[in-house]
Amino acid sequence: MTIDLHAHSTASDGTTPPADLPRLAAEAGLTVLALTDHDTFAGLAAASAAATEVELVPGVEISCRLDESEVHLLGLFVDPLFAPLADELELIRTDRERRAVRMVERCRELGAPISLAQVREIAAGAPLGRPHVAAALAAVGITDAFTADWIADGGRADVPKHVLATVDAIALVRAAGGVAVLAHPRSVKRRASVTDAQLAALAAAGLAGIEADHPEQPPEVRDRLREVAADLGLLGTGSSDFHGDRKPVRLGECTTSPEVFAALRSRRS
User: Fold this and answer.
1) What is the CATH number of the domain that holds 81?
2) What are the tens digits of pLDDT across the range 42-61?
3) Does the predicted TM-score (pTM) go above 0.85?
């Protein structure tokens, strides 16, 4: 088995239609793929219908707040029809739209020649989000969008958003019959890393695993995360975090072992 537990489609901020992902996964040699779009299950039906050669794990990547930082939580094996989780995701998505609209306004006030229409065209029907605003900025030559000058957290054009506390997101994932895995906890592209103490608190709250092998985490970080996971009784997963053409990452670039995958499946609520 070759297993990738983190991938995105055009249902959020990826560039690959969900119906095309299973075929691409099979061509990449994968046998299992999790579709984990940001705060939505919108792509699952199309991806499931097309998944004839790979096992598709229903998932979602939830935007959360951990102390003063934003983190992302993967909910795997979740029931997309579980109303409390679906309702919370809808609230996050509608707030994301409000946030993106206001970010465009702030960017324009700061002199960036972008428009809301341009951002909507880039999103191509997906819920608007910060990556779409960043793509619009890049299209007019502003390639440092995720900095304090523009739309990084706390940046001049940033707008606060509604987010769940991570422990509440873990509880929702478990109530929806799934398992919770903390995504890229020490990515080199994020301003703050999740500490060992924070991981211990999340483990006590029901976290099942942490994404150790990830393209944005160097080998020494991956090794340390696997050590912490073992100490806390957590599972260390591996995933590509595939976004299509939006990131220079291929499906299956990092993978989860069959043993860890089986253990994750066994931990479903």
Assistant:
1) 3.20.20.140
2) 999 999 999 999 999 999 99
3) no
Q: What is residue 97's predicted lDDT score, i.e. its pLDDT?
A: 86
Residue-wise pLDDT tens digits, 229-240: 999 999 999 999
> Based on the structure, what is the number of domains in the chain?
1
Q: DSSP states of the chain as a string?
A: --EEEEE--TTTT-SS-GGGHHHHHHHTT-SEEEE--BT--TTHHHHHHH-SSSEEEEEEEEEEEETTEEEEEEEES--TT-HHHHHHHHHHHHHHHHHHHHHHHHHHHTT----HHHHHHHHTTSPP-HHHHHHHHHHTT----SSTTTTSTT-TT------EEHHHHHHHHHHTT-EEEE--TT-TTSSSPPPHHHHHHHHHTT--EEEEE-TTS-HHHHHHHHHHHHHHT-EEEE---B-GGGSS--TTSS-B-HHHHHHHHHT--
Which residues form the domain of 256? 3-88+163-266
Asked whether residue 140 is domain-assigned, the answer is no
Task: Let me know if residue 116 belongs to a domain.
Answer: no
